[in-house]
Amino acid sequence: MAGLPKSTTHRLLTTLGQRGYTKVLPDGRYALGSMSFRLASGMPRIELELEYVRAQIGETINLGILVGREVQYVARALSNQALRWGIDIGHRVPCYCSAMGKAIMAFRPDISYAPEEIVPITERTLADPAMLREELRQVEEQGYSLDREEYMTGVVCIGVPVAGPLGRVIGALSASGPTVRFSLQDAARHADLLKASATVIGNLLDPELPPGPADANE
């Protein structure tokens, strides 16, 4: 036991929860949250892998895990270019409008949105459920997804699914860059590299990492 007063302990746990390191279970007990993933023993090797991929592609490389129906950014290797784009660690993005999210959804039929929940983020967001379903079918077939400025205007991304040690897709890896330098064709050319890296990273993930929808209220 830490020997701290209950009020202090509660305040600390609340702060950790706001940052994603803890969560409250239905019975009121606390458990590790999704950001506790960053404390896993494999993180140093994962970050080295991200740096390696960044060096090959030259753009920002992101790793996200599934939390409910969102992708939470847990690690990244920022591009060395003066003009670069990156989302802060801990930020969450809806699956339907991101390359990482679509890479996950294509292999996780348990993740879905009602038509009214698909709110356009940019004018290029796939807000039509039928078009989104067709896109996910193609992603499943080719093994990678593309974000055609669907989350941020002027930014293109490619994402590939990351399966954990137990074989279930629980996250995704992506490369993102500005459209003035990183075209959809450029992105697609790196699919095989990203898939290979996703396999390496997947083997380093914690087998106990939550698989997704059960975390919806985290």
CATH architecture of the largest domain: 2-Layer Sandwich
Span from first to last CA? Answer: 25 Å
Number of strands: 8
According to CATH, the fold-level topology of the largest domain is Beta-Lactamase
Which sequence of strands runs across the widest sheet? 5-4-3-8-7-6
Provide a compact summary of the structure:
This protein has 218 residues and is α+β, with helices and mostly antiparallel strands. It has six helices and eight strands.
Description:
By secondary structure, this protein is of the alpha+beta class. It has two domains: 32 residues, no CATH class; 181 residues, 2-Layer Sandwich (Beta-Lactamase). It is built from six helices and eight strands, in the order H-E-E-H-E-E-E-H-H-E-E-E-H-H. A six-stranded antiparallel β-sheet has the order 5-4-3-8-7-6, sandwiched between helices. Strands 1-2 form a two-stranded antiparallel ribbon. Helix 2 runs antiparallel to helix 6. The longest helix has 15 residues. The protein is globular.
Note the topology:
Blueprint lengths: L5 H13 L3 E3 L5 E3 L10 H15 L2 E8 L2 E8 L14 E3 L4 H7 L23 H14 L2 E4 L6 E9 L5 E10 L5 H6 L1 H12 L16
Search tags:
single chain; alpha+beta; 8 strands; 218 residues; 6-stranded antiparallel sheet; two-stranded antiparallel ribbon; Beta-Lactamase; 2 domains
